[in-house]
Amino acid sequence: MAEAYPAYEERPRRRGRKVLIGLVVLLLILGGLLVAADRVAAGVAERAIADQVKQEVAKKNAQSAPPQVDIGGFPFLTQVLAGKYERISIVLKDVQGPVQGGTVSVPQLDVDARNVKASLDTIRSGQGDVVAESVDGTGTITYDSLAKLLGRPGLTLGERDGKLVVNAPVDILGAKLTVTGTADVTVAKGKVALRFNDLNAEGLPNLPMARTLLANYAKSISIDVPLPELPFQLNVRKVEPRPEGLTVTADARNVPINAAG
């Protein structure tokens, strides 16, 4: 009789393991379904916000590729219930913004909105305000579009050692020369100020008139370039030359990131 006890003890243990495994599998399936549902809901909200951002861009008479929106934070559904989202990232590509005298091209504008408030009805219907506590934006203006605004045939702009550099053909006292130099770049009142104070031209005649003409050319391309009106009430804080273009950093506080309201 004593040898039969292990067989009776083994069956309850095996049943217990099977029940435990079954519960774990069930929890994993339920968890996967919840995650999937959470991501589906996030996708719907991202598309709704993208549509609203598209309207906001159109209000500024600008153009861009369809906005790419990513709602950060997990789980998404708890953020929906609270009506507050940790982060919403928006990417606008191929932005074309009208300015006085032409168009400014921004290959990509990255916008990061933090602590965004939006009710469930607003997300679902697109009516109402989606308000961000803070919005930070970074974009790069191409040197080609900037050079076109200067209106000097053959003039090119670029970056060297963190400075904006210029290269342009000129005719001074009948001599065809190439002007090179750097510019100081500042920003104020929505405009980028370009000041070309250090220009040189190899072969420049050693005459006062030649130096005066070169100085006049520097003044003629030292202009205030108006920036396109940015979406989301972004205000430009800093502009710096980089290899890929003139990088603009902007921010805003307590602003709607949709076109409603």
Automatic annotation (TrEMBL):
The chain crosses the membrane at residues 19-37. It comes from Micromonospora rhizosphaerae. This is DUF2993 domain-containing protein. InterPro entries: DUF2993. Keywords: Membrane, Transmembrane, Transmembrane helix.
